[in-house]
Amino acid sequence: MDEAEKNRLRWRSRRGLLELDLVFSRFLQHEFDSLSDAEFEIYQDLLLLPDNDLLDLVDGKTESKDERFVPMLARLRSWNNDKKQQ
Amino acid sequence: MAKLAKRTFDAVVVGAGGAGLRAALQLSEAGLKTAVLSKVFPTRSHTVAAQGGVSASLGNSEPDHWHWHMYDTVKGSDWLGDQDAIEFMCRAAPQAVIELEHFGMPFDRNDDGTIYQRPFGGHMSNFGEKPVRRACAAADRTGHAMLHALYQRNVRANTQFFVEWMALDMIRDAEGKVLGVIAMEMETAEIVIFQAKATLFATGGAGRIYYSSTNAFINTGDGLGMAARAGIPLEDMEFWQFHPTGVAGAGVLITEGVRGEGGILRNASGERFMERYAPVAKDLASRDVVSRAMVTEINEGRGCGAGKDHVLLDITHLDPEVIKHRLPGIREISIKFAGVDPIKAPIPVVPTCHYQMGGIPTNYHGEVVVPDGAGNHVVVPGFYAAGEVACASVHGANRLGTNSLLDLLVFGKSAGDSLIKYVKGEVRSMPEIPQSEIDRTLARVDRLNNQTNGVEVNDARLAMQRTMQAHCGVFRFKDMLKQGVEKILEVEKMVQKTQIKDKSKVFNTARIEALELDNLIEVAKATMISAEARTESRGAHVRDDAPDTPATPNGRDDANWLKHTLWHREGNKLEYKPVNLTPLTVETIELKARSY
């Protein structure tokens, strides 16, 4: 995925809910650049979900029925924790 | 002379949250060719964060009346709200909610099929007598459901959405008439003129001026910045609603229920400081008392952490089973955003900014009104505003819960109706765009693109946020405000020299954030300067040096300060305008001390 496409996803990680902004900004800072092209595709699709559904998934309140999202959500959930912030 | 591509519309709406969508729907359904610009996809606007509901005196569960709702709103506003606008809003509320129901909004329902209503703080029947059920909600997703219903409806009405576009400036002619906006497409960085017969701002609030804020990152006060740069004053910007316990450094709220379950606030030495401020209620004292105590502890050097900038909310003494079962969400939030398991260690908390009561001055028709220099307040031709960006003023010094969603529905619609009347009745032709307006915006963008030896955007933003938090937070001190004015003007100089290393064109988040900061700093200045000048306490503006006397209950000084602030960017000049105490059809709700 080229830099322009990555930048598009960076912007689309800006959400209507502060909680998601906080999780995604950590993910973008620390992990985003190391994603494979296949993972970028999954992340892109995940960003299409409504904010409330996405927050429930990231919080682990719900589980995704889409198998592809499961590993990505696990990574996002790990960034759900402030201790990894420097 | 730079030429820009131009698109023409009957109306351009900036912002696609609840207010923008409600307004755009009105415009499109009236046959106006309408463009809506939004930085993010409409259903991801910050309205999505509204959970509590929308208030309307439907009386579905028990008797209720718009006049009682009006009384609660005036009282909540600490009498700074304009009573004509408040009557207009409360009377329009039932229809606004029923309309939304017809648009497909999935409200919670009673067994008989009517909309279910729940109680909410400050909602009372019979002029403050006893609580009444007035809040209508769609589970805990009211804002989200509202955005969806309105967005779908707009698509059907052929509203043209420009998603991932950022408006940079509004365009005015020599007489002050508003001719549209200049905007940037994020995908290409192309700057385009949106020429329109009329322009409506619904860009939301600017809560990101504070270090601790519940607002999403997109809430950067873009409409306020654009208006200020175009010579429109901002009204009552000293009034911001705060919540006492947000996670320090993150802003996510810790519900007051934690203190209800036995949570204790402690300072750096571990002292339960609320015992000194409220010997009886202690940690369960009211919101403002707790916030004030927390800020006093921090100001007097007893704050926690390296920056001594927060206090601790301790629940480690509670049975872990109680925490897990009664406060499950809180444990999650604390672990996630503070990196602290509250079973083992206390949660760092700080008063946190939530909602902006002030904004672009409008009347209850959603028309922007400004002083004409001769003592009158006149409509700005072709300019409308609704929602959190606007100040109608229905929230006055303090907003009543669930009135924010109501505000955006009612004034989104009324601003839309006023705009339609103007475009159909008064506008004959598409006006010419003055080159000087284009140059003004391009100069600002060029300055940013060419800046060297400047200031990093993050550094300038952090300086602004820390200055606002420390000097103009939930509880305010004369000397701190005075220093704060000097400091924020220093920060402005930093903002004027921001630089970006990445000059790429496609979705350049660094450039967008720098342009957003240009807007935030205008709001920060307006807030600090307006707050420093208002030497009373009223609603959310609470000063240490405003004495509580019989003539000035709780520090509120009606003899001198029952008036709206107007801040002008030019020279940071302040002027004032009277509060409208004359409702449309009923008697004035007379001044009295606000107590619950």
TrEMBL record, chain A:
It is found in: Cytoplasm. Keywords: Chaperone, Cytoplasm. The keyword Transmembrane does not apply. Pfam families: Sdh5. It comes from the Bacteria. Belongs to the SdhE FAD assembly factor family. This is FAD assembly factor SdhE. It comes from Parachitinimonas caeni. The lineage of its organism: Bacteria, Pseudomonadati, Pseudomonadota, Betaproteobacteria, Neisseriales.
From TrEMBL, chain B:
It is a peripheral membrane protein. Pathway: Carbohydrate metabolism; tricarboxylic acid cycle; fumarate from succinate (bacterial route): step 1/1. Residues 535-546 have a biased composition (Basic and acidic residues). Its cofactor is FAD. Residues 10-405 form the FAD-dependent oxidoreductase 2 FAD-binding domain. Pfam families: FAD_binding_2 (PF00890), Succ_DH_flav_C (PF02910). Keywords: Cell inner membrane, Cell membrane, Electron transport, FAD, Flavoprotein, Membrane, Oxidoreductase, Transport, Tricarboxylic acid cycle. It is an enzyme of class 1 (oxidoreductase). This is Succinate dehydrogenase flavoprotein subunit. It comes from Parachitinimonas caeni. The lineage of its organism: Bacteria, Pseudomonadati, Pseudomonadota, Betaproteobacteria, Neisseriales. The gene is sdhA.
